[in-house]
Amino acid sequence: MQKRIYLMRPNVDSQEVKEIQKVIHSKFLTEGKVTQQFEKTIAKYTCTKYAVATTSATTALHTMFHCIGVKGKKVLVSDFTFPATILAIIQAGGKPILVDVDKFSMNVTREIIEDALNSSIKFIAPVSLFGNPLNIDFYGLRKQGVKIIEDGATNLGTKVNNRFVGSLADATCFSFHPRKIITTGEGGMITTNNKKLIEKIRSFKAFGKVNSKFVNIGTNYKLSDIQSAIGLAQMRKIEKIIKKRIKQAKIYNELLSKIDFIEPQKQTQKSRHTYQSYVCTISKQGLRDKIIKKLSQKNIESQIGTYALHSLPAFKKIPKIGKLENSEFLYKNSISLPLHVELSEKDQGYIYSLIKNV
Ligand SMILES: Cc1ncc(COP(=O)(O)O)c(C=O)c1O
């Protein structure tokens, strides 16, 4: 059997082990000083005032939507995303409305939102996907009286106009699942510059406590020091990880430009795309699934880009604006190719030749 080429491999080694060992030896294993340090590291890195850790991006989003007050309110949300985005809105009692995305950047745009906005909508939940940021003009929507809660699960380290994702929306949620830029096994983070919001968030994620008193309704979304120890080691490597991913993405771009039916995700202008996933669209109908099958036969992992929420059974009844054609197209025709530290240039050439031959 040929060696397996994975879709993603976390960049973890003895550095993470050392950090975990320190926590184990301290015997303080729940959320404590190490998580606080991890939060500070993320806030500093994203140039944001505050960062709060949670158990995942899904729980970060739930916390955010709850604390910002979407209960009973409409929330515009990208249709092309992982279900976590909309599940968190529903769990917080919000009323999601699905909007389309741009076919090339795969992100929602300011124009799409402006066409959908009316005076009854005060919240928007855009998703910056696969390491590609929203256009900088998107954040100008905040001046129109809407709050932006960005699902930046895939976008730690991404920049637009030289500013980090995490510092631009009212709040941004990141993921540390092993498929993301850095990992803590499972984990998430909220960044915001809003002090009032941060107090609510800290209370909600820790049983509704304020100064050790139970004053609010809350839950337990605390991130353990063991996980944050991994996060700290990962943060020391993040720039190196991103640099390597950009280099590998360039190699794919050059190889795949020789095939006319395949097109990589269009990078947002003036941005640093971090390539959390290397995603392309295959314009010939039905070919995407054939490629996934062919790669799988050769022991190579690949995956669809992500989901068109409106076509999933759980969200069939969610109101939508327009036909969501781009999202549908991307759901049916996008593919995510292997990209990680263990992937060699030779592997990339092999993947290219297999795709070409399909
Ligand atoms: C866009 C997006 N949002 C949210 C999530 C959920 O992240 P987590 O697994 O940390 O809950 C994912 C996971 O893949 C995602 O891709």
Based on the model shown, name its key terms.
single chain; about 350 residues; alpha+beta; Aspartate Aminotransferase, domain 2; Aspartate Aminotransferase, domain 1; 2 domains; 7-stranded mixed beta sheet; 4-stranded antiparallel beta sheet; about 35% helix; binds pyridoxal-5'-phosphate
Count every beta strand, where a strand is a DSSP E run of 2 or more residues.
Answer: 18
Taken as a percent bin, the fraction of beta residues is 15-25%
| Strand ordering within the main sheet | 1-10-9-6-5-2-4
Low-confidence stretches: none
Bound molecules: pyridoxal-5'-phosphate
- Principal-axis shape equals globular
Number of domains: 2
Percent of residues in helices? 25-40%
Count of helical stretches: 10
